[in-house]
Amino acid sequence: MRGLEFKGLNTVSGPIIILRRKENVGFGEIVTIRDREGAEKTGRVIELSDDYAAIQVYGPTTGLSTDETSVEFLEKPLELVVSEDMLGRVYDGLGRPMDGFSPPFSSTFLDINGDPINPYAREYPRDFIQTGISAIDGMNTLIRGQKLPIFSGSGLPHNRLAAQIIRQAKIRGQDESFVMVFAAMGVKYDVARFFIDTFEEGGVLSKVAMFLSLADSPSIERLITPRCALTAAEYLAFSLGKHVLVVLTDMTNYCEALREVSSIRGEIPSRKGYPGYLYSDLASLYERAGKVSGGQGSITQIPILTMPNDDISHPIPDLTGYITEGQIVLSRELFQKGIYPPVAGLPSLSRLMKDGIGPGMTREDHKDLSSQLFAAYSRAKSVRNLVAIIGEEELSPLDKSYLSFGDVFEKKFLSQGEMEDRTIEETLDRGWDSLSVLPRDELYRIKTELIEKYMPMTEN
Amino acid sequence: MIEGRIVKINGPIIQAEGMGACGLYDVVEAGERRLIGEIIRLNRNLATIQIYEDNTGMRVGERILSEGRPLSVRVGPGLMGRIYDGIQRPLKDLYAMSGTGLKPGVKSDALEQGKTWDFVADADEGSLIRAGSLLGHVRETERLDHKVLVPPSFAGEERLVWTAPAGSYTVDEVVARGEKGSQFSMSHIWPVRKPRPFIRKLGMTEPLLTGQRVIDIFFPISKGGSAAIPGGFGTGKTMTQHALARWSDADIIVYIGCGERGNEMTDVLREFPKVVDPRTGRSIMERTILIANTSNMPVAAREVSIYTGVTLAEYYRDMGYHVAIMADSTSRWAEALRELSGRLEEMPAEEGFPAYLPTRLAEFYERGGRVSTLGGDTGSISIIGAVSPPGGDFSEPVTQHTKRFIRCFWALDRELADARHYPAISWIDSYSEYAEELRDWWQHINPDWLEVRTQALDLLKREERLAQIVKLIGPDALPDNQRLVLLCADMIKNGFLQQNAYDDIDMYSVPEKQVLILRLIMTFYRRSLEIIQAGAPLVRIRSLESVERISRVKSRIPNDRLEEFRDVEALLEGELGKLKKEYSA
User: Fold this and answer.
1) Nearest to B57 among A29, A271, A288 (CB)
2) CA gap A247, A181 in Å, rounded
3) In angstroms, rounded to a whole number, what is the distance separating the alpha carbons of residues B194 and B70?
4) Burial class of B406 by CB neighbour count within 10 A (0 to 12, 13 to 18, 19+)
5) What pLDDT score does A458 carry?
6) Which positions in chain B touch A326 (Cβ < 8 Å)?
7) What ipTM goes with this model?
């Protein structure tokens, strides 16, 4: 496929080149750029005027000359060859195989930008995914078709947690397992290696499609990587009817790349120098999750992002939280206490939980129990603050019982081993165990019948 | 037809030449795929246009067409229960035409073509009509009488020479003719950015009842009022908006999902048909219009979706209905303005937002209100806008400017949301200027309202002050009468303010029940205080059965069995009476 080819550029500025064009080209079209040595790079038309075209180059622009560079317009948007054989393969950040084999044979090419899903075509996700992790299953339940990010900080075990979810995630009563799409954006090689090892040990390498744009790849490539991964996921889910689990790490690096390009283009920045369209741009990724009516498959997204300086109000976690259906927040305080997984109780949230739990899905006491656990843990936290000021001795008996609830809850409920796979019943029972520390009339969010049925008999 | 040529493309903003005959905000069809766009700036011959669909693949030199009319919506019977995108394309039809993904360039009529409606003329032949006059009516849904009015754009007066005999007509068929040759069908078009005219604005006298206790009692909104719900992510803006859309006693709801999640709209589409309106006994979907321009749909259409929604609301207001608009979220709309303004290379004001942000917000909120319509009815539009401040910080421009144009502020609180206290409306930061105006109405329904409201708010304020002290020295250092304040404040919070949207009984409270619960708590407080002053320790009171009963009454006594409150009152009187005797003896 050869399109129009031009020689010579007007401007090279970072990853943006501008050339004078004589023939007509389309907005958003993909181009191949050949430098003086004949090496090829990919780029995309981002602005057009009567005589000029601005092109964003997905690769290093080092060594590009204005006279000796040629640009070929391919008359199509950036596409990915999709087929079932993508599973078990490793791609680079631009969707080109990097495992030494040729691209899977297929006649289906998909535009990596996808089309926005018609809200009318969506089906509301409500199938409970058991991750075997109490902090998630009990308090922030993951639902098939949900987008639930992990908000972490540098040094926190987000990768281990994501790996544990990947290993253990299953739909109860169904044998059908997930296939996985993994996209790494700007992470170090060791991190990618950690995930590859996890897949290998789990014996699921043949069910994973990997898209790797590591820390040493040009940053602008990261703008393409998640789109390739999600295009693959959409094909697997909506055309082939598979249940796909997508892990995107690290979204912070993606946003940095977006800011870099925006600043080179001279756009008006909004908060912290990020472009005003950061929200829309992130939405164009995160919204590519879910279920569609008439289809069998689903896309469950677990984006991982590290909050700069652990600040949840930073634009990246902030805008992410506005789009995704909840968030799992990791806490440095719990981590330092030696608690794994250090899932912060209060700021974590799963918005789709309400419809995926309860009788027939998990257990009848789940809703009331989790609501009560949240309320009690919140109270326990404020009692801890009080202890810091007046000391434990001065506390009322009630406050003391909340204090010990906080400790039991963190030790027995939140903490678990990395290889420990708990059933939902075990998780809920552990929740009841923690609540048994409190006087019964403090359980105001739980129906009396449920307390009678599930509360373990103790001397309390 | 005006024809121009595209000369520049920068994302959804393009420039075209040869469009000098067009007016500002005229609608265009751009390029080979005839994508819908709107002219947002004119400079001699050169027009700047925002495109409402994805324009990847568009080329310089392609044609651009305009009929020289502004971006408009089509109004008539058949809007109710449907879901549209920001430029009023029916999403159900688009799904049937192009499947799961939204493809650029796909078009479908806003009102179902070929569908007939049973029209009954109300105007007599020979009667004099003007803009807003009643021509006839159609039963749009089981409970909704759709009045067919002379469009507001009709100038002057004319005598009717013919009205259609009762029967089935499509929205395009002529149903009335005037002596000067005017013809009227059941539908017309109206530019979205132009407010529909009315005779005059009226004062507010009646609350928009929402069944949500914290709103109806503490921070009420009137029919025709405007309110903002600001809150960081996860504080329950959308949940509150959904609850209001479900339970508020408006005749018609226009729900605008503006730049928010796709699944939320799916949730509405899935749940609303199942929810029965307590007043009509019909599904609430029969009174709801949805506008969905989710975050991943084109940003320019997000900007216009707010206007599309409010124009549809005005259309029903003109028939004399009370309409409520839920706009979720106005911040996404403001961000769309910012994004488009950035591409126009306008000089930014605060945080990159254009300087005209407050003007636009004011224009939008002022389209609400209670009015006397052209046809002589009284109708209203209440606007409830969600605001999503970055980082949950209310000092940002959208929240601050919105505050200038609304009179009811429901501030969502992060701490409450973290403790899963929903609705997480803060009783400290929220306010409602409508409370004064609604006094007479409540006086009529339940004279206790004002008294318990004032007492409860006062109690919560005292608790807020005491909480500062408790943080420093712990609750045990306080005297019993102050600890009683803490206890009763907890009862108000857990037994009254917190409302479970998933509990069949608790999800919706009639006004009488709301007052009864609060009165119960306040009575408990007054009586307990007497006993404590008589020397009883708080422990005795805390351990009474009534404490637990009162805290659970919200989810125990259904709206139709309010007489059961007497049992709880009796228990309370009995227990406290006994204690009182013990200590006064």
Assistant:
1) A29
2) 6
3) 9
4) buried
5) 56
6) 234
7) 0.86
